[in-house]
Specification:
With about 350 residues, the protein is an alpha/beta fold. It has two domains: about 250 residues, Spore Coat Polysaccharide Biosynthesis Protein SpsA, Chain A, CATH 3.90.550.10; about 80 residues. Helices cover about 35% and strands about 20% of the residues. The strands form four sheets. Strands 4, 6, 7, 8, 9, 10, 11, 12 and 15 form a nine-stranded mixed sheet that branches. A two-stranded antiparallel sheet has the order 1-5.
Length: about 350
């Protein structure tokens, strides 16, 4: 990568069109990389991620910007961001329409970089994170989708029942370990980057947008807003690779290591699956009304069975055998909740 320097602020005389004056001439300084973070009412976590961003190593000559999208925060989010104005090339924009996809779309609109790197407002960014992506962009100029490693940082001790089903529950920890070498992103469910650590080449995005019906939003916890846009880009013939050294840590508070959180997460997963089924995301056209109704009835009739199965396993079978049944029940509960609302 060449010599590295710690992060420095963009020149104070950089104007709002990405131009600066040098020897009396206006020179373009469009950034190569835009880092986008979306946030809402998480000022304490935001301070942590910005502190780690301020310790990143930046290749000499790399131009970049950090777009912070404030999705209607009422806490000290803006004050926290202002504390980093002198150490980060940070620009705060507001998106008052609530929902993660709306915030992501605003960040994408504001980004001036040739590549957009996405991370979350509660992660721990490794010092080499931006270097790793910059190197990948240089080494693979024909690639449009990039994904990085996510290491869970668990607060407390995993319950025994969680340890027994670690591979089943690792998505709840945000874990993504793509390996130690560059390799192709296949696009399969278990081989897609997560929203806390991925990057897109901007020119491949075109007219695509994050679906406002997916992602966390008011009164819902749907998933998949990042996966669907990456899959859409890959389906156009673009390439994707994993960048193993682009790493972030994902703090996991102890409250998420509970049966209730497993239920909440998988109900959101079920809602997502139902929405993608009804809209025909994989087929390219919406399902017919009667197909959706038929699917809803099948799910509705299956819920009592899965609920009873879960309780039976808790009573009659070895410890922790109930976990997959608990997941199945809550996925179907989430699917039925979506179908019930959409068919009213």
């Amino acid at each position: 990568m060449g010599n590295l320097i710690t992060v420095a602020r963009l020149p104070a005389y950089l104007d709002d069109k990405g131009m600066f004056k040098l020897d009396g001439k206006m020179i373009s300084m469009e950034p190569l990389i835009s880092v986008v973070i979306c946030t809402r009412n998480r000022c304490d976590q935001l301070r942590q991620v910005l502190e780690t961003a301020a310790t990143m190593l930046i290749p000499v000559g790399l131009t970049w910007e950090l777009i912070l999208v404030d999705n209607g925060s009422t806490d000290a989010t803006r004050e926290v961001a202002e504390c980093f104005q002198n150490v980060l090339p940070i620009k705060v924009v507001e998106e008052l329409q609530l929902g993660l996809s709306h915030a992501r779309n605003r960040g994408m609109l504001e980004a001036r970089g040739a590549y957009i790197c996405w991370t979350d407002d509660d992660v721990v960014i490794s010092p080499n994170w931006l270097c790793a992506y910059a190197q990948a962009f240089a080494d693979f100029p024909d690639v449009a989708v990039f994904g990085g490693r996510i290491d869970p940082q668990i607060e407390g001790v995993l319950p025994d029942w969680w340890v027994s089903h670690g591979s089943t529950l690792e998505a709840l920890l945000g874990k993504r370990h793509p390996g130690d070498v560059y390799r192709v992103i296949t696009g399969h469910d278990d081989d897609m980057p997560y929203g806390a650590n991925f990057a897109l080449r901007k020119r491949d995005i075109g007219d695509l947008r994050f679906d406002p019906q997916l992602g966390v939003g008011p009164d819902r916890r749907r998933l998949g807003e990042e996966s669907t846009i990456m899959l859409a880009i890959l389906s156009q013939g673009a390439k994707g690779i994993w960048v193993p050294t682009a790493t972030v840590g994902n703090p996991v508070p102890s409250v998420r290591l509970s049966k209730d959180y497993v239920a909440e997460y998988h109900q959101g997963n079920g809602e997502t699956d139902a929405y993608l089924y009804a809209t025909g995301f994989l087929q390219g056209k919406p399902r017919s009304f009667w197909k959706v109704v038929t699917r809803a009835f099948k799910i509705g009739f299956a819920i009592p069975f899965h609920y009873c199965r879960y309780h039976l396993l808790r009573v009659c079978h070895p410890a922790h055998a109930w976990v997959p049944a608990w997941i199945d029940y809550n996925v179907r509960k989430g699917m039925f909740a979506y179908f019930s609302r959409s068919l009213r």
